[in-house]
Amino acid sequence: EEKASMDLAVVLVLCLSSLLLFSLWKQSYGKGKLPPGPTPLPIIGNSLQLNFKNISKSLHDLSKTYGPVFTLYLGMKPTVVLHGYEAVKEALIDQGEEFSGRGSFPVSEKVHKGLGVVFSNGKMWKETRRFSLMTLRNFGMGKRSIEDRVQEEACCLVEELRKTKASPYDPTFILGCAPCNVICSIIFQNRFDYTDQDFLNLIGKLNENIQILSSPWVQVCNSFPLFIDYLPGSHNKLFNNIAYSKSYILEKMKEHQETLDINNPRDFIDCFLIKMEQEKDNQESVFTIENLIITISDVFSAGTETTSTTLRYGLLLLLKHPEVTAKVREEIDRVVGRHRSPCMQDRSSMPYTDAVVHEIQRYIDLIPTNLPHAATQDIKFRNYLIPKGMTILTSLTSVLHDNKEFPNPETFDPAHFLDESGNFKKSDYFMAFSAGKRICLGEGLARMELFLFFTAILQNFTLKPLVDPKDIDTNPVEKGFASVPPKYQLCFIPV
Q: By C-alpha distance, which of 236, 370, 372, 245 is closest to 296?
């Protein structure tokens, strides 16, 4: 008896919510406000039209039917999708302020609680971002420039690769250590030895997180946030990993507080603590311990995994295209030689290498659908009305793989960034770091690392694949939040 009435109640609730959803849906389309899109089903929205293993491809297919601006229901929430350079540029650049909100990303909200720089909004975001950019730019900490730090790390990376004695080696781990160490040197003031256990644990967890975030399961959780609290699954592993790194940062921060010299900031943490001290009477200040921990955790994970995945994917592409690698090495020998480390000044005399680094980023399409944006106010966009708070997905794939700007976009070809005379050719379509107000905070640092690490490796080693280059598969194994390259091994043969 009881069970029957329970079932009935459930059915009623479902019917009512379906009706409600349908009427809301009709309303928004009836007035022609929201862009068109596939009809959503109750509760699950357009989930059946999406391949959670490759959302980017689903968006591409839907844009063929609905055009460059369409509405998609991820679960019960409508999301506006922008596909293609024109629409993405119009939103992120021409109407940058209105589109500068951070959209809903439920798996992260649980951890970030609106703090930090990646998932925050409004004043919290603006002030934290301004501070972080300034601190990275005025990098007079310990009077060593960021370039010094990256060069030092490049030398350590080369030394570490020598120890592999030219035997088959999976570079995943070591390519995570190098960018992570650059970030550590900026945040904690010192780099770690590649054998340091704390360091290894930290990197292992960051590696795991990007895999989890890119899995189909997390894409599902983001559409159905209830799952996060009530179902077991890899998202819980993610939360544990984040808790681990947060407690590690807290430790470090306490050490910093004890040894702080206000007139001599050593690193990012010191700068933040000084700022906290300056604003201690301001009740509204965003400079709090909680925000410090989340901000550092943001800079840390964003700055490690993205660069490390790009390096790893890049080496795989260089293995697959030995003719490209040979031309880069020739340019390194001509411009840098063997007797000094490459530096950023060399880049302008190395158009081919510069093009290769750009092409690696374009081809791998690291963050296919960007991080979700949100409307900061009601926006009139083309002929639609996008209400304040609405989540906006921008397809970066559609820009990086635009076939007019980059003929044969699915082919790896450095000529995409070279003119007829072999000079480097800039492109407005190069949005690997996104664009507009929320463009990647660490873009300058990331570009420097990619250039210096790739050139240092190729200056010192010949890359030898274990299989015939034409048998190397360069398709990503995951294409969720990020594009993750397949596992592989290679030999680093000293030059």
A: 245
